[in-house]
Automatic annotation (TrEMBL):
Belongs to the OB-RGRP/VPS55 family. It comes from Microctonus aethiopoides. The keyword DNA damage does not apply. The chain crosses the membrane at residues 12-32, 52-72, 84-107. Its main location: membrane. This is Leptin receptor overlapping transcript-like 1.
Amino acid sequence: MTFVILGCALPAYQTWWPLFVVLFYILAPLPTLIARRSTDDSESNNNSCSELAIFITMGIVVSSFALPIVLARSPPGVGTIEWGACYLTLAGNFVVYLTLVGFFITFDQDAADYSMW
């Protein structure tokens, strides 16, 4: 989040458009969490539900990387962002999504360790 806020608040950029990627940060883990909740209840649609959740999650992740690039490439004077703000936002995306992947990997291993005993 620090990179995203820097991309918005630094005096060289001073535009808050990159902050819209925070919406993608909130939406990204939701399909996976919903799929996990539904697979606990019924094992019959486990594979198709998980694949749909991964597909939707990947669409959200790609959108969060594409938004700053599209904003930086749009014509000047239309409320766009500078390339430096774009790079800072992309770095923030990278850090946030690595954290989310680490979260899901950690809790998958945690559940597997307890089920072994």
